[in-house]
Design a protein that fits this description.
This is NAD-dependent epimerase/dehydratase domain-containing protein. The protein is α/β, with parallel strands linked by helices and 360 residues long. It is 36% helix and 19% strand. The chain has a domain of 212 residues: Rossmann fold (3-Layer(aba) Sandwich), CATH 3.40.50. It is built from twelve helices and 15 strands. α2 links the parallel β3 and β4. It binds nicotinamide-adenine-dinucleotide. The site of nicotinamide-adenine-dinucleotide (NAD) has 28 residues, from α1, α5, β6 and β9.
Length: 360
């Protein structure tokens, strides 16, 4: 018997990763879900809902304009969250990405707790009570759940972190994400949802407008330079930072969703969140990779990167661990990050800027 179509809700769906993920989902067309009889099966994607507190004038991809439904609202409003999950007449998958970022979270404690902590709880509750059999619930956590650089921390800058590294967040953002991981684990242990979390490092390179992450300059150095726009960085050129590309970040979310419940139970046990493997890059390496990626005639069209270093911020970022060991993943390079961005967003490159060896 054919499975009923799945309802897929992406909170933060109008954000960068939300839209990248939505496009990948539409291209796949099906998802692994729990059926009413308790077994897992493949279901066609019926409705795809992008739930976000703000809807941009234009989405990144035309196919999303055509095929995705946009629901504008705030995940810190429990009623809005309930309205997203449907009536339980088919499988439900939630990708919970909607969040306040680290910079904004440090500026506004109440907003960060309301959105990132209460919002996660509201989405978990909505999924639990929607009537669909054991909804898959994929959540984005962050490397900011860890601390580093304080004598009492469990991890120092030189450590390669793993899923067993203890969380000692230094920011309200990191604290809310660590709490959300524990909520996801307990809702899963009780069988309310089938939760899986991805602890992401900084995603490079994000398209469109910068977000309010304290480390957003690691994307700006690629994006703005290729767009012919100058960047002034508050973080020093030699400060290494843990990053992942946007393609592997989306792959990680899909891989976690598609893993069988038996495999997840056996591998993760009571913990439901894993690190997405990262590589360490500096701003100088990213800048050099951009310049090496274009032919000589395009070099003069690139933006320039200058440094107006905020020593406190630079030292804080420099104290983060730069390597996360995760469950899968090929080694990326700075050159890959630049190429993937330029291939996926050719319209964002300055006129006349092409990649070596391509027509882009
Ligand atoms: N991009 C990264 O480098 C990175 C790194 C680690 C973790 N993450 C996590 O990945 C997720 C997606 O990040 P992104 O890079 O796409 O960021 P983004 O800022 O592009 O997207 C986040 C989206 O959440 C929405 N949002 C904010 N408050 C909301 C609310 N109250 N209700 C509903 N939606 C709300 C925003 O409007 C935005 O569209 C976030 O949970 C983030 O914490 C991202």
């Amino acid at each position: 018997m054919a499975s009923a179509p799945a309802r897929v809700v992406i909170t933060g769906g109008c954000g960068f990763l939300g839209q990248m993920l939505a496009r990948s989902l539409l291209r796949r067309g099906t998802l692994c879900t729990h059926t009413a009889t308790g077994v897992e099966g493949s279901a066609p994607i019926g409705e795809l809902v992008l739930a976000d507190v703000a809807s941009p004038p234009r989405l990144l991809f035309e196919e999303l304009e055509q095929r995705a439904e946009i629901a504008v609202g705030d995940v810190s409003d429990a009623e809005f969250c309930r309205s997203l999950v449907g009536r339980g007449d088919g499988p439900l998958s939630v990708f919970h990405l909607g969040a306040v970022m680290s910079g904004q979270g440090e500026a506004d404690f109440d907003l960060c707790v309301n959105v990132n902590l209460h919002g996660t709880l509201h989405m978990l509750e909505a999924a639990r009570r929607c009537g669909a059999p054991r909804p898959r619930f994929v959540m984005t956590s962050a490397g900011a759940t860890l601390g580093s650089g304080a004598p009492t921390d469990w991890v120092t800058q030189d450590d390669a972190v793993s899923d067993a590294t203890r969380a000692t967040p230094h920011t309200t953002y990191g604290m809310t994400k660590a709490c959300a991981e524990l909520l996801l684990a307990d809702y899963s242990r009780r069988g309310f949802v089938d939760g899986r979390g991805c602890r992401l490092p900084s995603v490079v390179c994000r398209a469109g407008a910068p977000n309010a992450a304290t480390t957003s300059v690691y994307s700006a150095v690629v994006r703005e330079t290729l767009a012919g726009v100058d960047t002034s960085s508050p973080i020093g050129p030699g400060v290494g930072h843990a990053v992942v590309g946007h393609r592997p970040a989306v792959d990680a979310l899909l891989t976690m969703h598609e893993a069988s419940a038996m495999a997840v139970d056996a591998t993760l046990g009571f913990d439901r969140t894993v690190f997405v493997p990262s590589i360490a890059v500096t701003l100088a390496q990213l800048d050099a990779a951009v310049r090496a990626a274009v032919p000589p005639h395009a070099a003069s069209l690139l933006g320039r990167v200058t440094y107006d270093v905020d020593e406190r911020l630079s030292a804080a970022v420099g104290s983060f661990p730069t390597r996360a060991i995760g469950m899968w993943g090929d080694e990326l390079t700075a050159a890959d990050l630049v190429r993937h961005y330029a291939e996926d967003f050719p319209d964002a490159l300055a006129e006349g800027v092409t990649l070596l060896g391509t027509d882009n």
